[in-house]
């Protein structure tokens, strides 16, 4: 394991002790979500969008954040499954060429990839993933209106 003096992610403030980067925690969680017993539900999409939105300032392309926020909106407000979010993303990718910039929330998140990874695999962890995605969506409340308008414009 590489030596690293960081114990918190500089972007999302997650406790990354034991790992080199926050993305390593995310990758470990991905092994879980990609092997999930309910592939049709596709819970993996929720962690893709929650992680991307919590690392918005690290993403060089506006499309990454726009898609993450649209995905979180469809989950949190419209109760889409991960599979349905994925389909919506694919449809959007065909139509839109430019995406607006969004201003990330300033406050520190209370749920990060670390809290999710700390939960027991199975129902508890699936619930933690949904809580994480919902909390990330809530934290972006200053941009909710802009995201809703963006979706209405392209649906
Ligand atoms: Zn992080």
How large is the share of residues in beta strands?
under 5%
Distance between the termini: 46 Å
> Number of helical runs?
7
Low-confidence stretches: none
Instruction: Report the structural category.
Output: mainly alpha
What is the helix content?
40-55%
* Whole-number mean pLDDT: 92
- Tally the beta strands: 0
Instruction: Report the order of strands and helices.
Output: HHHHHHH
Radius of gyration, in angstroms, nearest whole number: 15 Å
Characterize the structure shown:
By secondary structure, the chain is mostly helical. It has one domain. 55% of the residues lie in helices and 0% in strands. The protein has seven helices and no strands. The structure holds zinc ion. Zinc ion binds at residues 9, 11-12, 14, 22, 55.
Could you write a compact summary of the structure shown?
This protein is 55% helix and 0% strand. It is built from seven helices and no strands.
Keywords:
155 residues; mainly alpha; 7 helices; globular; binds zinc ion
Secondary-structure blueprint:
Elements: H1 22-34, H2 44-54, H3 62-76, H4 82-95, H5 113-117, H6 123-139, H7 144-153
The protein binds zinc ion.
The site of zinc ion has 6 residues, from loops.
